[in-house]
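Anyone up for a design puzzle?
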């Protein structure tokens, strides 16, 4: 094998290893935040909103904490009750679509 090919393969293996390490760190962080009851990011869950609080230096102090949006939570409770009562999901989707159109 030529030295250039060897170096290239070493770089590929190193990058693959680092990618795995990064994946492990992200998974570990998400699990830890979930255990603490914190939101791990991404799109906000329907029914909640993020309300930021800051310290005297302007740093966010409540990272990952969500508060309930009562109007959205009421929709979730209604849909859950309807599902538990055996209503077909297609009917829920149709009623939600008509509600959104208003």
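Challenge accepted. My sequence:
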């Amino acid at each position: 094998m030529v030295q250039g090919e060897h170096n290239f393969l070493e770089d590929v293996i190193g990058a693959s290893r680092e990618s795995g390490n990064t994946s492990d760190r992200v998974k570990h962080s998400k699990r830890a935040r979930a255990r603490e009851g914190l939101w791990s990011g991404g799109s906000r869950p329907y029914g909640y909103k993020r309300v930021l609080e800051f310290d005297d230096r302007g740093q966010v102090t409540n990272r990952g904490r969500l508060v309930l949006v009562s109007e959205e939570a009421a929709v979730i409770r209604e849909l859950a009750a309807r599902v538990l009562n055996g209503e077909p999901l297609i009917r829920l989707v149709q009623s939600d679509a008509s509600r959104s159109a208003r």
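A detail worth pointing out: Strands lie at 48-50, 66-68.
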